[in-house]
Design a protein that fits this description.
The chain is 68% helix and 4% strand. With 196 residues, the chain is mostly helical.
C-alpha cells in the first residue's frame, strides 16, 4: 500500500502533493462522488481524522444539548462526566465493529480491501454528517429549535454512509446485505448505549 506522503493527487492534469485536511473536506463537499472509487486514494489519515472529529462533535452536541436544560449556570452536572461521552463511545464502538465486519465480509466475498480502505471511505463519507453536526451546535446555543433537524440529518447520513459502503464495496449490489449492515449497526449502537 502506498504511503500517504508518496500519494499524489491529480487535479486538472497537474500532479502535486496531497493537500491539507481542509482542502480534503472542501473537495468532498464539492464532489462527494470522488471518494466512491474502487481503489484506495491514500487518504486513510484524513478518514481517521474525520472519524475522530465526528465522535468529538457527537460529544459536543450532547454537551450543548444538556446545557440547554438548565436555566442557570449554577449546576452544570459535571459530577457525571461520563454521561456526556456515552453516545460517542457507543457510536465509536459500533463504528469500529462495523469496520472490522466490512473487512471480513469483503474478504469472504473475494474482495482484497484492507481496513485502511474502509477507514478512508467511511471517513470521507462522514464529512457531510460532521458538517451538519457542526452547524447544529451554534444553532442549539442560540436556542433555535431547528438545530434538531441538522443533528438528525447528520445521524441519518451516518446510516446512509454505512449503507453505501456495504452496498458498493462489501457485497457489491446486494441490497439485502447492505440493509442488514445498517440494521446491525443500528442495533449494536443502541445495545452499547443501553449498557453504558
Amino acid at each position: 500500500m502506498e504511503n500517504q506522503k508518496e500519494t499524489v493527487e491529480k487535479k486538472d492534469g497537474k500532479e502535486g502533493q496531497l493537500g491539507n485536511y481542509f482542502q480534503y473536506v472542501i473537495n468532498i463537499l464539492k464532489n462527494p462522488d470522488s471518494v466512491l472509487t474502487e481503489e484506495s486514494q491514500g487518504k486513510r489519515q484524513f478518514g481517521l481524522i474525520t472519524l475522530i472529529a465526528f465522535l468529538v462533535l457527537v460529544v459536543l452536541t450532547n454537551f450543548v444539548g444538556v446545557l440547554g436544560y438548565w436555566d442557570s449556570l449554577s449546576y452544570l452536572g459535571f459530577s457525571d462526566y461520563f454521561n456526556y461521552f456515552e453516545r460517542a463511545i457507543a457510536y465509536g464502538a459500533a463504528l469500529a465493529l462495523v469496520l472490522f465486519m466490512f473487512k471480513n465480509i469483503a474478504e469472504k466475498n473475494g474482495k482484497k480491501y484492507d481496513l485502511n480502505f474502509f477507514i478512508e471511505k467511511l471517513g470521507a463519507l462522514l464529512v457531510i454528517p460532521g458538517v451538519l453536526l457542526l452547524l447544529s451546535i451554534p444553532i442549539d446555543i442560540l436556542d433555535v429549535t431547528i438545530h434538531i433537524w441538522f443533528a438528525s440529518l447528520g445521524y441519518t447520513f451516518l446510516y446512509l454512509s454505512i449503507f453505501l459502503i456495504s452496498y458498493l464495496y462489501v457485497a457489491k449490489n446486494n441490497l439485502k446485505t447492505a440493509l442488514l449492515f445498517v440494521a446491525g449497526f443500528y442495533l449494536v449502537y443502541h445495545i452499547i448505549y443501553y449498557v453504558l
